[in-house]
Specification:
Blueprint: H1 4-20, H2 24-49, H3 60-63, H4 65-92, H5 107-125, H6 127-149, E1 165-171, H7 178-192, E2 198-205, H8 213-217, E3 228-235, H9 245-262, E4 266-271, E5 282-287, H10 291-307, E6 311-316, E7 323-329, H11 331-336, H12 341-353, E8 355-360, E9 369-373, H13 383-387, E10 390-392, E11 398-400, E12 405-411, E13 417-419, E14 422-431, H14 438-450, E15 461-463, E16 475-480, H15 481-511, H16 516-521, H17 528-538, H18 544-573, H19 578-588, H20 590-604, H21 614-647
Helix pairs in contact: 1-2, 1-4, 1-20, 2-4, 2-15, 2-18, 5-6, 5-19, 5-21, 6-17, 7-9, 15-18, 17-21, 18-19, 18-21, 19-21, 20-21
């Protein structure tokens, strides 16, 4: 984008040098001819980039530097185009030979110009041909949009990155011993040894893996206990393997899940997210007035997750039922023996968990050794063993614990999670398969949730971008990558619509017409004729970076249209007939439009194969090619129709 102003200025200087000869006055006149429309076009591109500054939420800081940096750079490039470029052009193009105005520099350009002129004159002279051309453009645009409808192009926040690592999260049933958890993890490790792309792995049984991005955003660093395990898997470097990390993860998941099924373990293959720091790709948050009922509804949602095609690694933030044994103190008997409830609790705590009894200073040791007081394992292995613990009454007589307590059995309370002070139950999942975007999985699950019948007599309300205001009714909020996707595309769309109004007002102020800006902005949707088929051909997601490319491309389309229309009006001001002015402007402005499009294509090609920014490259390259080819015909024809109608 930064070379566009210089391309327009230098190309016009070169064209005038070929016609009138090399001189300072000619250079000044050439710059003056395209100066005002170039300034207006530059500010329209800057305005088109502004929506990215208004994205809210987590992606705001990620996108905000783009419009800030690009706008500042474009203002500097505009100054260079008007100050440095004319001076350098005068020096470099000093040997330019004078030609007749109609003489072409290149046979290829001459051939295409003649082809374009014949086509454009035919459209200007025939209403039938214009109608066919407009119908063809509408058909191309509609066909491109259908690629999204029929899922040849899928929408996703950010594509999968090509990382050098992934994590395998092992969750055994609550109460599983550390030894059994380690055994299952080791069996997973034996399978990992057979995968050629894996260099090594580390098993962390009973504790969390070292702190990483997943640990931060998905709270894995908090995991501990005998029933959990993390396996950190490292791949060979990207230049030594053909498969991307996401493809490897998809290949690993079925075999690893078979191991998990054998041991009733929930094993998840977790990739490092490419951008948005979310709890999981798919997150359903269940809100309501009663926690037990929330868990029941979350269980139904969990079943829907598992039954939905493409949804994998389903889990929830609800522990399995754990048996709880309570020693209820008979306070009357305890008081009779002069033993307090606190003394009984402390005695049992010491017997089970131990207590520090002081430090032992050993001659050969630099540090003192802590003394832990605890009963032997054989005397605390069962309930009956604990009941035989002896306490001393106030009179000095031994009293068995069984005389002071009664044993009650129950179920341990579930952990209660809160978000913004509201009680919530989380259901999590990921996506893999043919449709690897959470958008389509959530759309399917939303329909299934609508069919869920609540005994309370009302439908389970679903929220997308905000929490339910009250907790008096049961409701579900879809979070995770879905929430970020809605925020980004909503904010970009709303800001882009507002910016289009601003650009319209700017162009109205310059051309003194309410219809001419519509003619200039009409080709913006035409870039989709190139963008969507190119995404389908490349097998790429339409992502947030694709949207950025579309917005930036819209600014470039408007700039080319402004310069083209301004040149038509310049020729009209010189007394040229309308039809001839339209044709000549299209021919003369073709080369700078072609050069700016080529600059975009070449400049974007360096990020075409980057996993994250591929969408931006495709949108800029394909969108610019399509809009340049179509707008070169559409804008002159629309302008001709408008002017012809207004003069009649």
């Amino acid at each position: 984008i930064l070379v566009d102003d210089a391309i327009v200025v230098v190309e016009n200087i070169h064209r005038h040098f070929r016609i009138k000869g090399v001189s300072r006055e000619t250079a000044v006149h050439a710059v003056d001819e395209v100066g005002n429309p170039t300034i207006l076009a530059t500010f329209t591109v800057i305005a088109a980039l502004m929506p990215m500054a208004f994205v809210s939420g987590l992606m705001g800081p990620y996108m905000r530097p783009i419009p800030v940096g690009a706008s500042a750079a474009m203002l500097i490039s505009l100054l260079i185009a008007f100050i440095i470029s004319p001076w350098l052009s005068y020096i470099v193009l000093r040997k330019t030979k004078v030609h007749k105005e109609e003489e072409e520099e290149s046979k290829i350009i001459g051939y295409f110009n003649r082809l374009y002129e014949n086509n454009l004159r035919g459209l200007l002279e025939s209403t039938f041909k214009r109608t066919i051309a407009f119908l063809l453009v509408i058909l191309l645009l509609g066909g491109s949009m259908l690629l999204v409808v029929f899922k040849f192009v899928t929408v996703k926040m950010l594509p999968f990155d090509n990382k050098s690592e992934l994590q395998i999260i092992v969750d055994m049933p609550e109460g599983t011993s550390l030894e059994r958890t380690a055994m299952v993890s080791q069996e997973v490790g034996e399978y990992l040894k057979t995968v050629p792309e894996i260099t090594d792995f580390q098993i962390y049984a009973g504790t969390a893996a070292p702190f990483n991005f997943n640990g931060l955003v998905r709270h894995y660093f908090l995991r501990s206990g005998s029933a959990v395990s993390d396996i950190q898997v490292n791949f060979v470097s990207r230049d030594r393997r053909e498969a991307q990390s996401h493809d490897i993860a998809k290949r690993l998941r079925p075999e690893i899940q078979k191991i998990g099924d054998r041991y009733n373990a929930n094993i998840k293959v977790v990739e490092v997210p490419p951008g948005p720091p979310v709890l999981s790709t798919l997150v359903a948050e269940v809100y309501g007035p009663d926690h037990e009922r929330q868990i029941e509804i979350a269980g139904e949602i969990k079943k829907i997750f598992k039954e939905t095609d493409g949804v994998v690694d389903v889990d929830w933030y609800v522990e399995d039922d754990q048996k709880k044994i309570i020693f209820a103190v008979d306070k009357e008997k305890a008081a009779y023996h002069g033993i307090s409830t606190d003394s009984i609790a402390q005695t049992v705590r010491i017997a089970l968990g131990g207590m520090s009894a002081g430090l032992l200073h050993v001659e050969d040791s630099r540090e003192p050794v802590e003394i832990i007081l605890r009963t032997p394992l054989s005397e605390r292995a069962g309930i009956e063993d604990l009941r035989e613990i002896v306490l001393v009454s106030s009179s000095g007589h031994p009293v068995s614990l069984s005389e002071l307590v009664r044993v009650e059995r129950g179920i341990e309370h579930k952990t209660i999670y809160r978000k913004n002070l509201k009680r919530v139950v989380y259901v999590l999942g990921d996506v893999a398969g043919t449709e690897e975007s959470p958008v389509y999985a959530i759309m399917k699950m939303k329909e299934k949730l609508k069919e869920l019948e609540l005994p309370e007599g009302y439908e389970l309300k679903q929220y997308d971008s905000e929490q339910p205001w009250l907790e008096d009714r049961y409701a579900v909020k879809w979070d995770g990558e879905w929430h970020i996707t809605i925020e980004v595309f909503r904010d970009l769309g709303m800001a882009f619509a507002a910016v289009m109004v601003i650009i319209y007002v700017m162009v109205v102020g310059w051309f003194r017409s309410f219809i001419t800006p519509i003619v200039i902005m009409a080709p913006i949707p035409l870039s989709l004729v190139g963008i969507l088929p190119a995404h389908a051909f490349m097998g790429a997601f339409f992502t947030a970076t694709s949207m950025i490319g579309f917005i930036a491309g819209a600014g470039i389309v408007i700039r080319n249209s402004i310069i083209l229309v301004d040149f038509i009006e310049l020729k009209l001001g010189e007394g040229m007939p309308l039809k001839e002015a339209v044709v000549q402007a299209g021919i003369i402005r073709f080369r700078p439009m072609l050069l700016t499009a080529a600059a975009v294509v070449v400049g974007s090609s360096v990020i075409l194969f980057d996993p994250i920014f591929q969408g931006m490259a495709i949108a800029l390259m394909a969108g610019e090619v399509a809009s340049t080819l179509l707008s070169r015909t559409l804008v002159p024809v629309l302008y001709y129709m408008h002017k012809k109608r207004s003069t009649n």
